Amino acid sequence: MSRKSCRREGKMDLGLEGKVVLVTGGSRGIGWECARVFGLEGARVALASRGEEGLREARRQLAELGVDATAIPVDFRDGEKVRKAVDAVETALGPIDVLVNSAGSAKHYPPEHDDHGRWRTGMEDKYLSSVHALDAVVPRMGHRGGGVVVNIAGAGGKVSNPMHMPGGAANAAIILVASAMAKAWGPRGVRVNTINPGAIETERLAAALRVKAETSGKTMEQVRSQALSAIPLGRYGRGEEIAWLCAFLASDRAGYISGATIAIDGGATCLA
For the domain bounded by 20-200+239-264, which CATH number is listed? Predict the structure, then answer.
């Protein structure tokens, strides 16, 4: 759902009213949709992302929909800055009940790309951005006796993609850490789950298709059609479809779900 066409859906009444929700990577894409949905459910939302301008615009657009969000600029690649940002959120809104871990993304590269730094960059931009948020938030939840984390990883963490090797490795690492944290902190009342989005209509998808088109010599239309043919439902996903599952997983209605990795990809990896 584009922001321009965004309509105000009815609430699911998930019991999230008043919950403090930190959405990392909340200035655009899936993160922004998650912030919007939690706001519609009555949660107190904080957005955190690198760019101040993007945060201001995201906050303005949420306000137009009746969602009042707090915005915190932070580079999630820096663990100490992340801890300070979490302190700022809890000072402004109170203890964090829900962490939606959507910060960072790794670029797509052709297999023969000669930039050896892409491996480090992929881990820094996606994996470290995610684990720094986990390190800063999860122990606090555990010491308080409860909380929920929903990580937004990616299908490349379970299904190999030659165009997304650095990013796939980062997503696989996130999935592994998330499952271990679910075991480690479950006894303290913390639930940790991961959503693996497939092809979702975002700027990231467009960038990935451009790389594939340039590498294969095909047009964008041909690449897009080929990608759609591999999805049983025959369409790309929408950001709000990820966000509504995220809200459900954060609610007490999903109280016995922890350590799970859930694909939302139109059936593309149903046997993976």
Answer: 3.40.50.720
